[in-house]
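Appendix B, record 7
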Amino acid sequence: MAFNPDDFQFERILPPEERKPILEWDALHRLMVVRVKQDGEWTYLGTKLDTQVNTNLQTNLPDEWSNENDRIVSFSVFEDGEHIFEKEKLKFDFSTKQSKWLRYQKNDLTDGQVKELFGILKAALAVQQTDSAVVKSKAIIDVATRKEYLVKTDEEKKAILTKLLRGSDWSQLSDATEKFSGELEMWTAYRTYLRDNIKTPEDFDDMLDYLIWDEEYNWPIDPYAYHELDPDHETEYLSVPSHFKFSAYEVGEYSTEQLVGNIKQSAILAKQRQDAGGLPLNKQIWDKIQQYSLNEGLTGAVIENLNITE
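Structure tokens (predicted):
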């Protein structure tokens, strides 16, 4: 899977190579690559650092590591602690009367400094992920909990319910006939399920719970679809997940994720913040974030939205 520099999520990139760093930071291009273990195998994941997070790193690191006239270009650290520390210094050329950046390597950090910088970069990744998650979640929930959105989703579900019930009214007539054994009884079960399992925003005290329910709700397949799926009726109708589907029709009725984002994920995240007093964040990471002001200028990764854990 190719890495998308405009996406703040981690995606699989190049396979691991021998003697590859466990972490690389390209400060000039805001790229961070880390080695992780997935399914028992090493792989590399990359992310484009947010401009503010990358600026915080460059600005708030100790001056001997990076400053206005002598800045970090890149930093890589290997499993054994060896590192590559590339910098560039601003030099004035008196012959041309112009300034230019001269690149050089300064690989003389102590083991303690390497460990410290490694920890800072891990904290930068944590603050970025936390900030992005909170900001996106809040923006989506802000849209999804507005009255007009809730009314719209409620009306859409009720309209589908009405259409499905009307489309099966014939099965309740006294002269209705069956195409296969037990069909009419299944239509009754189908209609009962529809009536008994549709909920409205008024059924919930917390709109986050409604949003999660709404996103998780699956419509029952009708008896025809069930019979086609299981001609011998070996499995009781509406008894297994395969008897339900997200959309009531072949083509999905909703495109909410394209319009406002992943509502379920955002609602769960908001619910987690609400119930736990904030997103959990390790105290060591939080201390590093504060020490180097890595959340400066951010609105999501702030103490009000966090639950600092040991």
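Remarks on this record: The longest strand covers residues 83-93. The first helix runs from residue 51 to 60.
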